[in-house]
Structure formats: structure tokens, C-alpha cells
Amino acid sequence: MSPESSLNPNFETLRLRLSSLRAERGLTYEKLSELSGVSRSTLIAMETATPRSRRPGRPASRGSLESWWRVAHALNVPPSELFKALDG
């Protein structure tokens, strides 16, 4: 991996990985929220890159490290495996 690419993590691949894992396990946003302790609106924002707020100019959520960690454990995936998608 070049130094330049390491400065630009591939969040789209991470989002697709989350979507795939959630679908494979047959989990709704509501159920994953219950299992992870991450709010439904945050999960949707993490997976779809949509802003959690309707305020104009508000950036899309990438989710906090804690949120991704909680989601990984709720999906029974080591966080390191989930985060490998960032290099994709």
C-alpha cells in the first residue's frame, strides 16, 4: 500500500461490508441497534453515508470507533476483520 492510499481510507468498502454482514445475518437496523447499543439512525448513517441531521451542510457520519467496535462485536466479527475493508 502506498503512503498516499493509507491517507485515504476506503469508507465506501467499509459501508458495503457492513451492509453485507448485516444482510447475511438477516438483521434489521432495529435488531442490530438492540444487539450493539448503537442507535438505529447512527447505523443507517454509517451504512449509507447519509447525514444524521437534516441540517444543510452537515457531513455524513462515518461512525465513531466505538460504534464500529460495538457493531463488529454484535455481528460476531473481529473489529480488525471489519476494518480491513478500509484498505480495499
UniProtKB/TrEMBL annotation:
The organism's place on the tree of life at top rank: Bacteria
Any Pfam family the entry gives: HTH_3
Record Gene3D superfamilies: lambda repressor-like DNA-binding domains
Residue ranges occupied by any HTH cro/C1-type domain in the UniProt entry: 18-82
PROSITE patterns: HTH_CROC1
InterPro entries: Cro/C1-type_HTH (IPR001387), Lambda_DNA-bd_dom_sf (IPR010982)
Protein name (database record): Helix-turn-helix transcriptional regulator
